[in-house]
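Final report, results section. Input specification for complex C-07:
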Amino acid sequence: LRFWWVNQNQTYRQEVAGGYLWSPKLRSNGTRNPFYEFMREVSPGDLVLSFADTRLRAFGIARSHAYEAPKPLEFGTVGRNWDAIGWRVDVRYHEIPTVVRPVEWMELLRPLLPARYSPLLPDGRGSQSIYLTELPRPLAFALADLLGPEVAALARSESIAEPELEAQNPELVLWEEHLRQRIESDATLTDTDRQALVLARRGQGLFRQRVQQLESRCRVTGVDRPEHLRASHCKPWRDATHDERLDGENGLLLTPSIDHLFDRGFITFRPDGRLLLSPVAHRPSLHRMGVPVDGDLDVGNFSAGQRRFLEFHRDKVFLQAQARAS
Amino acid sequence: LRFWWVNQNQTYRQEVAGGYLWSPKLRSNGTRNPFYEFMREVSPGDLVLSFADTRLRAFGIARSHAYEAPKPLEFGTVGRNWDAIGWRVDVRYHEIPTVVRPVEWMELLRPLLPARYSPLLPDGRGSQSIYLTELPRPLAFALADLLGPEVAALARSESIAEPELEAQNPELVLWEEHLRQRIESDATLTDTDRQALVLARRGQGLFRQRVQQLESRCRVTGVDRPEHLRASHCKPWRDATHDERLDGENGLLLTPSIDHLFDRGFITFRPDGRLLLSPVAHRPSLHRMGVPVDGDLDVGNFSAGQRRFLEFHRDKVFLQAQARAS
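Structure output:
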């Protein structure tokens, strides 16, 4: 259970009504923002405190890990320079009826502010540059106490039971359906291209044939029966150009559970062939799905082309804030 | 490596040109046909001898297990009473230029004919009632010898290397895409229904919510993290009515590899909760995907509704000829 502070000034209404956090992946100038990177470290059950207009206005329980999703339509022109694709976390929010202004409690809070990435300035104003940041436990407990006994108890519970945790992300499915429909109605494509692109989304057809020329077994489980292998994109189908969607070097053959873990960023591979596990991944579950979780797994060499697509995967899909990734 | 004889009189041209075997699942009167049931036992790499018009005309190497697929369009009116959905096996065929008529070799072949499900009558005529039947090894070797040294050598090899084995069945993907398109253009459905039906195909949305009210973990691997579980249909989405596609009792929560094995008929469950492995499943691969392959696994109780949908799965999806299933 971790604690997060989110500055939602511009988009508070939309995010609370829609039940999510959303951030771009990069600043509009193309550089990384640690407060967007933190999105990658949220886990279902984490507690989120919402700050807007100088007040703590809601608390929320994360219902998913971060996943790629388009900028919500309801943002309208707000943030129109952002990348169209960012990180989304599903959240169940509860608005707080009482007025809680941290600026009025700075004697209590000031000693608890972290040295780095603090959500509040020492004078009690919110830090403008922050979207999402982690709260150290003592600060989180102090803020929770201000919000009332329910939130105080919630913050101190071992884990938050949320019966409707659902991290399969219909937003992602609907977005991919939208992309597929666009391909199907694209008159500039031949029937053959259209079919190859649609099949590639499911790891089939021409894309799979090309991957099979380079790969022969699941690099993680060792399964080599073609009937149990999927051609998985390193740069996801949804993010890729048509050419990249069909490029054999953009693929690995993986069993379905490994394909899922890779697609959703719970695992990735270093250029030297080492398997990396995300810090938000639940290791016992990974173990039950056939991932070796004790010690380093060397999955073998990658070609230069594969390494290029894997770099995208580590950068834009893997669930670990890049500042911490080694 | 197993040997199969197929009587393709009516559909020889289409099946050889298209590279497949196809049979209905049931006779037109709704009863089982052992020669259709045999389709469920074919494995990639098996050798198939094609018989049509009193001649052995081609041999083929199976490239897939059996999978559900619609009756090929190119059959036209042939077999128009058949179920629209049958079993399909992908096959790479090689036509035989020499004329080989088994009837001319009955002195050699007659003692090798099996007592049951024999492809030839003792007088050398083909048995009209047969579609697919298994050849005992001595008979298969004798027939292969008649077809020439290449086939003779092939039949005696330990396993047949077929670089393009591809058992992910684009036919199935395209068929599901077709069904989805029909749903999306069905003006009798509301937008909400349409979205629920499309999401259900990926184990998401309303269907998943309903399954989650009944199931909490993968019955095979024990994984209980919702982010790693799919809502899998017992009666497949592609075979189901709209109501059945959204019925919670038609679903199990399974990790992606188990979902795949279940969807493709490599595993199923008995009404008493015992896990069954298909005889055509490759046990070491199943083990690597987290399936316990030694001894019986009891996966717990099923409701009456779940048992009804599981019966469909054992009957129409599981890859084991029903005569042999206990």
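DSSP finds twelve helices and eleven strands in chain B. Chain B has a mean pLDDT of 89. This concludes the modelling results for the funded period.
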